[in-house]
Design goal:
Length: 342
């Protein structure tokens, strides 16, 4: 009788032990992630913040917290982590502890002010726009790299770049400087030298070309026209520089559909009607097509251009002032007909 009791107790203990072991096994290695997606962990997050963020992905956060405690997971690493449906708590802890986050693609294009650039970047990484802007405008960074608040926009070459989500404003800025230096390879520098221009001067001219025409196919022609004027010592007379001055004066939301004669009298180093050569710095963020349009400009004899009324979006080019005046009169009449006064 005692033997049967002992065997029964042993059997019960084995069953209970098996159940307990199974439950522990399930806590550690059982499926807990219910859907695939990306988990974002901020630099300031603690373990409880991570648990709260996991609420959208896991069926039992307490089990995760228990496993994290057992594995002594206390060093939280910020980033963007890819979760896969069916992952266990053990998988989760190992992933988050390893810091093996998923990279992201950051892109920007034609953000014409530092503020707009910072805002564009801030929606793609953890750093907010203030942190990004402060990093870009840091006086020590600018001085070290011979930049100013007006010229630093020129180091940002519009493209798509791979980063980690928790990239800081300073790391983003430093990486962009590296990418700019890489962009200005020996071939491009040689072409700039042939133009008797520095890379920053090419960027400045490219920014004017960028604003002058939205047609990439037309940019080498426009660049060639401006280079003809520079070589002959003729003021660029680029309307985009006047628009730049007006926006600096009245705010970036100020709409200019027509440059007026009185605008040409504004005293500014950026007024290319009153000053010869290039303005002090770029007036916008040029994309690669505009930069390469300057470096590979089209050789021709054009000195004048005017927006075309026959092919909207393009320009009518002229070699002589007489021909240009006819094109300009035609354009002015068209503007008047459209009732465009500003």
């Amino acid at each position: 009788m005692n033997r049967k009791v002992i065997l029964s107790v042993i059997l019960i203990l084995l069953i209970v032990g098996g159940i307990v072991s199974y439950n522990y096994y399930q806590k550690i290695f059982g499926k807990n992630v219910t859907k695939s997606g990306y988990l974002y962990i901020k630099s300031s997050d603690q373990i409880n913040d991570v648990v709260q963020s996991l609420a959208d992905f896991t069926k039992d956060q307490d089990d995760f917290l228990w496993v994290a405690d057992q594995k002594k997971f206390t060093n939280i690493k910020a980033g963007k982590y890819q979760l896969t449906e069916g992952m266990s708590n053990n998988d989760l802890v190992n992933l988050l502890r390893s810091g093996q986050q998923s990279p992201i693609k950051i892109s920007f294009n034609n953000q014409d002010t530092l503020e707009k650039l910072a805002g564009r970047i801030a929606i793609q990484i953890e750093a907010d726009s203030t942190e990004v802007l402060d990093a870009i405008q840091d006086s020590l960074f600018l001085k070290k790299n011979h930049l100013t608040n007006a010229s630093v926009l020129g180091i940002f070459i519009p493209n798509s770049y791979e980063f980690y989500w928790n990239t800081s404003g300073k790391k983003f800025r430093d990486r962009m400087l590296q990418e700019s230096n890489r962009f200005w390879n020996n071939e491009r520098l040689a072409k700039a030298k042939a133009l008797d221009m520095s890379s920053s001067e090419v960027i400045t001219l490219a920014s004017i070309v960028q604003k002058e025409t939205a047609q990439a196919s037309e940019r080498p022609t426009v660049a060639g026209l401006y280079i003809n004027r520079i070589k002959r010592g003729i003021p660029l007379q680029a309307d985009p520089t006047i628009v730049y001055i007006l926006k600096q004066k009245n705010g970036q939301d100020f709409v200019v559909k027509r440059v007026l004669y009185k605008d040409l009298e504004i005293k500014s180093p950026y007024n290319t009607y009153q000053n010869r050569g290039l303005p002090p710095s770029l007036i916008a963020m040029p994309d690669i097509s505009s930069i390469d349009a300057v470096l590979n400009y089209q050789k021709h004899n054009y000195l004048y251009m005017c927006a075309s009324v026959d092919t909207i979006g393009f320009h009518a080019f002229a070699k002589t002032l007489k021909q240009h005046n006819r094109n300009a009169d035609k354009y002015q009449r068209w503007l008047n007909k459209q009732e465009v006064t500003r």
